[in-house]
Amino acid sequence: MAEAKQIMPDVLSIARSVQPIMLKSNNPQLQLPGEERKFVLVIMGTYYHTPTYGRLDVLRDVVLVVQEGKIVRIANGHEETEVQEEFGLAEVRQLKAGQYFMPGFIDTHVHAPQYQFTGTGTDVPLMEWLRKYTFPAECSFQDLEAARHRYSLLVKRFLANGTTTAMYYGSLHLQPNLVLVDSIERLGQRAVVGKVNMDRLSADDYIEDTADGLRDAEEFVTYTLGKKCSRIQPCITPRFIPTCTPELMKGLAEIAQKYGCHIQSHISECCGEVNCVREMHPEYASDAAVFEEMGLLTNRTVMAHGTLLSDDDIRHLARRGTAVSHCPLSNFFLGDAFFKVNHALSLGLKVGLGTDVAGGISPSMLSAQRMAVVNSRCIRAHKLAVSGGTTVTPEMEKDVITFKEALWLATVGGAQALDLADVVGTFEVGKDFDALLVDTNLSGTSGPFDVFEGEDDDQRFEKFINLGDDRNLIEVYVQGVCVKRGDEFLLDGSNVSVKATEDDSDRIMSAPTPVEPEAAYLDLAHRADSSDEAASVDVGAAAEQSEPPTKRSRF
Ligand code: GUN
Ligand code: FE
Predict the structure, then answer these.
(1) Which residue of 304, 340, 372, 474 has the fewest CB atoms within a 10 Å radius of its CB?
(2) CA separation for the pair 487, 465 (Å, rounded)
(3) Where is this region: Disordered (predicted)?
């Protein structure tokens, strides 16, 4: 195995002038229904995982035992008979050659109600995109029957792609979010889920009063905790600074404190958003400073994007224990800058990976990993271009990540971001068994790649990460329970396949159509968006006029 790259930060050496706001979950411990509690799973085979950043470890021909959802034993193959006797088993399941287990993917940033328009609407910048596509789509989830159907498709699609844990944004209205939680619970996924809050600068029919928003956010939290399902955690979700008043943000922070909830939002995503926040809050130096003042930076906070965070911002988030969800595909479409993973990690930041459906046009965490690698190589190319020369220096190479590092982000990094590092992300005794069974034997047109004579396990596994897709994922496990095998979702009474049915096509026809942004909103979007030359001049002028003598960094 290759040596781990020495870029992991020495966290202790980071100045501790600010104490992390430590939140602890109120959720109960693992509770599986009767039969599943007794269930013992013993599988002999090869397991890949990335406990160390930059290193791919293999547990070759081991016997892994899962009881009540947790890994209780990892033994060498030659101890098979002993294990069999210890657990009173008639036989031990053996994986076939070319089949491997790996940890389930952890997607740290998904907008559940945006799944329906994933792969479309890539023609406008963020602020306009929200108004034109996103708000109408999210608003339409008030039709609860449609919500039930679409959320069922969403959770199935994500499970099919190997996402065993997702951090979801719901929509504004309370009821459809309860449907989302019910769908996740029923289909067996692990998730952190939030009701979106916004009390300003949204569409007239997609906005809430501050008091109503706070009441509904708390009701959502108590509903989710009331499920007593350790797989599902509630999340406080101020959409982003432009759509939330300080009163709302402070109130939400109090709810998060009261229940020990996760928090999610968007931070320093693109020029349009950042310039908008500077205009609205000229007294603060950055998005991070605003969130700090509102009490929203905690050890259970995940902020999406962060491409325009300064090093001071990153250090501050790191001190707070706040994570960033790196969403490379979305950043290419809606963002204006690169997020530098290695640099952020070296400053002590927790970093996970996200699809950001539908800003990111793919629900696949395999795609997110590949995009993270490509993003890192774009940074290298950019540095070379700026140098004007033909010499690649070590400094230019610093930001490049490999598939192993991307896989770490998609598993361990995500687990750290969601405060689940003791629970999932690797195969270790004491952790829950959230895993994917990868089959690399699907040659020809039945699979996405071919395997050639002489290729070993490591090469086959690397091919899967770089070329594979959901066809290779023949079993998906969450908390030791197989939730999907082949085309079947085993916890779903109806066993509906992810393939569209006639019923689905009715729904597709009735999905909302995009609306044209109103003139006033467009003005704001343009003023704040740097991609419009004339508009960015406006922003500069406005910012100059309103700039206070000193900005509060609040750190
Ligand atoms: N900022 C505020 N809302 C959103 C959203 O839905 N997607 C993305 N990418 N950024 C946002
Ligand atoms: Fe997002």
Answers:
(1) 474
(2) 21
(3) 532-555
Give the whole-angstrom CA distance, residue 115 versus residue 81: 47
CA of 266 to the centre of ligand 1 (A): 7
User: 129-156 pLDDT, tens per residue?
Assistant: 999 999 999 999 999 999 999 999 999 9
Minimum CA distance residue for ligand 1 atom 9: 359
CA 16 to ligand 1 center in whole angstroms: 31
105-111 and 99-103 strand pairing: unpaired
Count of Cβ atoms closer than 10 Å to residue 4 Cβ: 16
CA-114 nearest atom, ligand 1: 6
Alpha-carbon span 321 to 298, nearest angstrom:
6
User: Which residues are CB-contacts of 307 (< 8 A; sequence separation ≥ 6)?
Assistant: 268, 269, 270, 331, 335, 336, 337, 338, 339
Block residue for tokens 């929509």? 171
What are the structure tokens assigned to 166, written together? 């997702």
- Please say if the pLDDT value at position 5 is more than 60: no
Contact 226, 181 (CB under 8 A): no
- pTM for this entry: 0.87
Q: What is the mean pLDDT of the chain?
A: 87
Residue 515 scores a pLDDT above 90: no
